[in-house]
Design goal:
With 296 residues, the chain is of the alpha/beta class. Helices cover 47% and strands 23% of the residues. Strands 3, 4, 5, 6, 7, 8, 9, 10, 11 and 12 form a ten-stranded mixed beta sheet that branches. The chain has a two-stranded antiparallel ribbon with strand order 1-2. Strand 1 and strand 2 form a beta hairpin. Helix 1 crosses helix 2.
């Protein structure tokens, strides 16, 4: 539905804001570099358009009527929104020239981001993207220090100092080279486990889950990558708890098997994290990939 005509003139509203601050027509005219009669004519036209008396004159200057105070309050809100819009446009213009630097924790970087980047490039092919990987703490530090525009983490509660957006969900499962289908929890806890290093999102989620149910895992050793852990499991060195995304191919090939542990179900959220000043550019990226966050 079109806006009612005539539209309010923003320059006149800006002059009205100035008048409320300086208190006189002459000072208002001086600030806007126009003549006092020009200001008076603008205010008369505004009163005629609105159908209300905005102010009266006194020996101390111009005084707003009750209706004028209400109109002024609305006017200030309109001007605030206009100025916010103008600032957003400036940011958007800068963003159009900015490359996107992304850092992600290993599981997301290896198994989700390639597809997400392909989706983004299909619509925004002129923008350059760079990708780095690290554990969850490295990702958080990289975004906090503004070395990276956008980060993706697994499981951890995003820090309050950063903006965040939920982009998907993942399940952690127990894998082995043994074709066992299930184990009771008591037997599972006695078996050697191969886990990611401290500081990884996967390790944090695993430890938090088992701490909450009051049991301790038998961690045989730590490895710094998903591929290293899968190789160790395939060679029979122990079991592991890994992202289903990370072992999807191996499960299909049957080079590893999933073991169901009684009453154990570990799920985690996947988050995008970013600084508030990059929100517009990040929104463009996330809007492109969000509906496909768990598809490859």
């Amino acid at each position: 539905m079109p806006l009612a005509q005539p539209l309010l003139d923003l320059t006149t509203l800006d002059m009205l804001r100035t008048l409320s601050r300086v208190g006189s027509m002459r000072k208002t005219a001086n600030e806007h570099l126009v003549s006092q009669p020009a200001v008076t004519l603008r205010f008369q036209a505004l009163e005629h358009q609105l159908g209300v008396r905005l102010f009266t004159k006194s020996s101390s200057g111009t005084i707003f009527t009750d209706s004028g105070e209400v109109i002024l309050e609305w006017c200030l809100k309109i001007l605030h929104e206009v100025e916010s819009f103008q600032e957003s446009l400036k940011t958007l213009a800068k963003d159009d020239k900015k490359d996107i630097s992304v850092i992600a924790s290993l599981t997301i970087a290896e198994y989700l981001l390639p597809h997400w980047i392909a989706l983004y490039n299909s619509k925004h092919y002129s923008r350059k993207l760079s990708l780095s990987m690290g554990n969850t703490q490295t990702v958080i530090d990289g975004v906090k220090t503004k070395k990276y525009l956008l980060g993706f983490i697994e499981g951890s509660t995003p820090p309050r100092s950063l903006k965040n957006k939920l982009v998907g969900e993942d399940e952690l499962i127990v894998i082995s080279n043994n074709p066992l289908k299930s184990l009771p929890l008591s037997k599972f806890l006695k078996l050697p486990l191969i886990l990611r290093e401290k500081g990884s999102g996967t390790r944090e989620v695993i430890e938090t889950y088992f701490n909450q149910i009051g049991v301790e895992l038998n961690c045989k050793f730590e490895l710094p990558s998903n591929n290293a852990i899968k190789a160790a499991v395939r060679s029979g060195q122990g079991l592991s708890i890994m992202s289903r995304l990370a072992v999807e191919s191996e499960l299909k090939e049957q080079s590893v098997s999933q073991i169901h542990i009684d009453k154990v179900l570990i799920k985690r959220n996947l988050y995008a994290i970013f600084n508030s000043e990059n929100a517009i550019l990040v929104k463009q990226f996330l809007d492109t990939i969000l509906d496909n966050s768990t598809k490859r």
